[in-house]
Amino acid sequence: MPADQAIPVITMAAPSGSRLLRRRITSIAGWALTGSALALLSSAMIWILAMVFVRGVGAISIDLFTTVTQGNGGGLLNAIEGTVVLSFGALLLAVPFGLAAGTYVSEYPHGYWAPTVRFLADILVGVPSIVLGYVGYVTMVDWLGWNFSVAAGSITVAVICLPYICRTTELALQQVPGSLREAAFALGASEARVIFSICLPAALPAVLTGILLALAISVGETAPLLYTAGWSSYMWNGQLTHSPIGYLTYAIWTFINEPFETAHRLAYAAALLVTTFVLIVHVVSRFVFDRHRQ
Amino acid sequence: MSDKGSYSRKATRRLVLGAALGATLAYGGFAIAADAPPHLLETGSTLLYPLFNLWVPDYTKAHAGLEITTQGTGSGTGISEAISGIAQIGASDAYMSEAQMKKTEGMLNVPLAISSQMINYNLPGLNDKNLKLSGPVLADIYGGKITMWDDAQLKAMNPDVDLPHQTIIPVHRTDGSGDTFIFSQYLSSSTPSWSSSVGFGTTISWPAVQGGLGAEGNPGMVNAAKGNPYSIVYIGISFKNATSAAGLGEAMLQNKAGKFVLSSKETVSAAVAATADKTPTDERLSLIFADGDNSYPIINFEYAIVKQQQPSPDMAAAVREFLEWAIKPDGGNSAQYLDQVGFVPLPPAIAKLSATQLASIK
Amino acid sequence: MRFKTGLAVAAGALPASLVLIILFLTIYAWPAILFNGFQFVTSNTWNLGNLYSDPVMVNGVQISPGAHYGILFLIVGTLLSTIIALLIAVPVGVGAAVFLAEAVPGRLRLALSFFVELLAAVPSVVFGLWGYVVVIPFLGHYLFPFMISVLGFLPFFGGPPGSGYGLLTSGVVLSLMIVPLIVATLRDALVSQPAEAREAVTALGATKFEVVWKVLLPSQSRVLIGASILALGRALGETMAVLMVSGNALNYLPGNIYTPISTMAAFIVSQLDSALQDPTDMAVKSLAEIALILSLISLIINFLARILLSFEKQGARRATFA
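^ Those are the sequences you sent over. The predicted structure of the assembly is below.
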C-alpha cells in the first residue's frame, strides 16, 4: 500500500481528516460505479425482454398454433413441431452418450482416458456452431445424400449438446458422497449397479438440470440448422432423411428480413416463443432442481 | 435416507426411464410408419419468391396431396441446390454458367416469366423525383470513384435537381444473387472499364467503398435503403410495393439508345421484343441493355433451374406439371399473378421453348 | 470390467466428434490451404473470380479466372469486435460482480444474479433481432452522432457515423452475450473467499469497498483472466447476432469504429451459397479453411482458459490474499 495510506493504520492516532474523506468518497464512487454496471446489465436484459414480449404478444393468436407457415404469413405450427422434433432427436442422441461420458469421467478419473475426455469436452464447447453446421452440411446433407433432414439436424445439434451434458453429469456425480458408493460396494453391488441404482438416482436433479440446459441450447440454435435441417412449410412427414423440416429460429432469422408485415409478426412471435421457453427452462432448472447452488 | 425418500427416488427414476423409453418408441415408430406425399422444395431467388408464394397456395389447393415449400435464399443457393438435388426447383434470375453446365450434365434453365430491376435510392426530400442515372455513372458509384451525391457527373445528368452534399452509401447483395448478376451485367455492358476489372456474376468482388453496406436478399436491400439516408440500392421489380411503402425514390436509367427510361410494362415489353427472338434452345440468354428507344435496360428471364433426371417418376411428374402450369397464359403466366409482382409474361415463342425443355423432365 | 469398457467406449463419442470435425476440415480444405498459402491471412481481397468464364489452371489447380482468397479484413473484423466486446464486458462484468457479491443481500443477490446471467441464455438470433430492430436505429441516429461530437477528436472515434451497422454495434451486442460468464465466475469466486481475509483487512481500517477493490479482487486476477479468455472464445464463435448487426463489409478495413465489418463466422454464413456456385469447388474449400482457422483459434483460446482456471482451483486451497 502507498506510504501515505499506511499511516492511519500504523499510528492508530486520529487519521488525517482529508485523506479519510478522500478514501470514503472514492469508496462511495466505487459502489456507485459498480452499481451502475449492474444497472446497465439489468436494463439491457429488460430492454431485450421488453422488445420480445411487447412485439411478440401483439403477434400471438390462436392461428399461430393451428396453422402452418404459408409463404409470408400463416402460423407457426410447423415450426413449433419442427423445433420439438429436432430438439428431442438431438437429446435422444446426446443424453446417452453424454451421461456415459460424464459417468466415466467422474467414476474412473484415474488413467489417461478420463482426463482426455474431459479436456476434449471442454474444447468441443469452443467450436463455433456454424462450423458444426458447415461440417454437417458437407458430410451429411451432401456426401451422404441425406439432403436437408431431421437426421442431419439432430445429429449436428446433438454434438453441440454433448459436452454440456457430459460436464454437468460429471459435476453432479461428484456431489454424491463417496460413502454411498462404499456402502453399496460393501453390500456386494457391482460397478454398474452402484452407478445406476445409487449414484445416478442421487444425482438425478443435477443431471436433469444439465439435460434441460442442453434442451434450451438446442431450441435456440440457428446457424447449424440452416444448413442441415433446411426449412419446410409443412408438418413433419415422419422421414428422418430426404425431408426438410421447419423450426422457430428460422422464422426469426428469415421473416424479419421480409418487407411484409405478416412476416415480421411471425418473426416476433417465434422470438417470443423461443425466448419464453428458454427462460422457463432456466428458471425451472435453477430453482427447482439446482437448489444447492449459492 | 428414509424409506420414503428412497421410494420416491425409485419412482422418479422409473418414471423418467419409462417416459424416455416411451417417447423414443413413439418417435421411432412415427418415423418408420409415416407415409410420404410428394414434397417439392423450391428455393432461390428472392425476386421470384413473392411470385412463387402467389402460385403455390392456389396450385396446391387444386392438387391435393402435393406439398411445395418455398424459400427465398438467393439465386446462388437456388442453382447449387438444384444441382445437388437438395431442391427440386431452383429459382434464379441468372442462368447457369458454361462451366456449371459442363460440370453437371442434364440441368435445365427454364424461363418462367420476365422481370426487371429498379435502381432505388433514399434521398430525403428528393425521393419523389426520378433521378437520371446511367451505367457508367453507377459503375463509378459502386467503384468508389463517385463518392458524393452532388458530384459533377450526377449534377450534369440532373441539372434541375438540388443534389445534397452527402456521401453516397452504395449497398450491394452479400448472398449469391441473380439481382447482382443482372445489375453487374448492366454495368459491364455499358461500361468497358467495369467489364474488364470487375465483370459480372451472381457474386462479384465489389470494389472497396468505405461505408458501403452488404444486405441479404431483396428485402434486406429495401430495409438497408430505408434505414440509411443517402444510400443507393438495386432491387427487383417484385418489391415495388415495398419500395413505394418505404418511400424510396426510383431512378430513370439510360438505355443503349441513350434515352432515360423508367421501368414499366411498356418499357420492359419493348426490351423483350428487341432481344427475345435471339433466344437459343437452352434459353440461356441475357436480355440486358437491349436496343430500342423505349427499352428498359435491366430486364431478364426468371429461371427455374431443374434437373432433367428426377429421383422418381412421381417427383418428375409433380415438377413438370407444376412448371407447365406456371408458364401457361391462363395458369401461372396470367395477369392475375404477374401484375402483382410487376413481371411481364413470356412471349409465345419463348413459352414454347420452355415447354419443350420441361417435357424432357423424367 | 466390461461395464467400464462399455462406458469408456460410449464416452469416446466426445473426443471422436471433435477429432472428426478437425480432421474433416483439414482434409477438405487442404487443396485450398495449399493454393492460398500464407497470403490467405495477409491479403485483403476475397474474390471468387469470374464464375461465368471457364476455369483456368493456376499453380496446377483449377480455379475460376481472377479468383483470389484473402481474409485479412475478416481476421481484423473478428479480432476488433471481440476486443471491443471484452473492453466493455470486463469492466462492466467486474463492476456488476463486485456489487452483487458485496453490496447485495442474500436472497436478492440470488435473484438479481440469476436475472443478469439470463443474458447468456437468450439465443443469438434473438440478440440479433433486438440489435437489428431496436439498437441500430438508436445508435445510428442518436448515440453515434453524439459520440462523434463529443469524442470525435480521438483517433477512430471521429468520422461519419455511418448507418448504425458496424464495429462498435457488434462489439456492444457481443459484450452483452459474454458478460454473464465473467459476472458469474467472478461473483462465485468473491463470495467463496473466506471471511478471515475480509475481517483481517477491515480490522486494518479499510472501507468495505477497499476490501474488495484492493485485496479480494487482485487475488482473483487469475480467475478473472481465465473467465475473460473463455468469454473471448465465446465471442469469436458468435454468428447470427453479428451477422445481423455488423454491416457485412467486403474487402476493406474499418476506418473508424462505426464502420461496417465482417467476422469469420458471419462470413461463412453469408458467403456459403455464393461459394457453392463455383464449379471448381475452390471457393467452398476456402470457406472450409476459414472454418478451420476459426476452430483452431477457438480451441487454443479455450485451452489457455481451462489451464488458467484449473491452476486457480488448486491454488484456492492455499492462502488467498496478497
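The longest helix of chain A spans residues 17-57. Chain A touches chain B through 33 residues (CB under 8 Å).

Shout if you want it in another format.
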